[in-house]
Amino acid sequence: DEDERTDRIEAAKRELGDDLVILGHNYQRREIVEHADFVGDSYQLSVEAANADAEYVVFGGVTFMAESADIITDDDQTVILPSMEASCPMAGMAEALQVDAAWAEITNAAPDAEIIPITYMNSYADLKAFCAEQGGAVCTSSNAHEVFEWAFDRGDKVLFLPDKHLGENTAHRLGMGDDIAEWDPWDPEGKSAEEVADSDIVLWDGYCQVHERFRVDHVERIRDEHPDAKVVVHPECRREVVEAADEAGSTATITRTVEDADPGETWAIGTEIHLTNHLQRWHPEVNVLPLCGEACMDCNAMRQIDPNYLTWVLEELVAGRERNVIEVAPREAELANVAMERMLEI
Ligand code: 13P
Ligand code: SF4
């Protein structure tokens, strides 16, 4: 039962002491975040990983986050993901080989332009490495606009991967909402190439299946049912949803919005349901509502980190066995680190 499991996790943590740090993304289940030393958004967790001294970094999150932690930690530190099944579908929507092929077409479409590729943190290490090689960088939802500005100081166009919604929302934030092309790799008529030539921001056709499900109807329904409610959403939501909301930002921004709310205020949250539930628990003085109550706002990838698996990897470490180690190949890690360091410097 949960009490027994809690005792076992805490006993393993005591045994491992300073050799262990547990990082938990805001979308993790309650039974994971309760045991984490740091809980935060993708950016905060990458900073925590970079600063961690512990020999073992156990990551409550998805594969691309654990890969990033491996890249950013020292060689003698080991990153462990409690379930190898925790893969973000969006990260899989831009495979480095496929992007490499598209890059040749995109650069041909605008031969005189300096194109800077920027990849969202939600991508695999080989794509981050590709971006580094082409003079680009990584960004997260909390710094996308700053990384875009950095890119436009260096080049004429940005290719943003994989999340078209974050790309579009960032373009609007920079006043470049009319300057967008969507890259369609299966476009037989070559229209994408024409659009690339005419636009400064080129978006890869990827999306988050959780955030894409939020609709303007959900915002309207909340405003009808709770006229005093304000709405905060994640920028992986569609453009029209972000426009209809009062605020938009990373999971850390959403968390801060509720933290800073006055007692009795009502906030509807448009993001993965576990964070909404945490915010309800952490801030009982604020009226926290899910923007959409449907169960589909649950991220399957994040859910793979079962507390039983956390117990297992910790007890195995106590027994001297390293399970589910995430290790990025050295050359790829070196390049991907360049792209991530660029973000951290920006
Ligand atoms: P942030 O925590 O950076 O806002 O990212 C959200 C997300 O979807 C991670 O998968
Ligand atoms: Fe990927 Fe979306 Fe899940 Fe984040 S919430 S891990 S982007 S599928």
UniProtKB/TrEMBL annotation:
Cofactor: record remark: Binds 1 [4Fe-4S] cluster per subunit.
Record-linked InterPro entries: NadA, NadA_sf, Quinolinate_synth_A_type3
Cofactor(s) needed for function: [4Fe-4S] cluster
Signal sequence segment: none
Domain of life: Archaea
GO molecular function: 4 iron, 4 sulfur cluster binding; metal ion binding; quinolinate synthetase A activity
Family the entry assigns: Belongs to the quinolinate synthase family. Type 3 subfamily.
Name assigned to this protein: Quinolinate synthase
Native source organism of the sequence: Halorussus gelatinilyticus
Gene: nadA
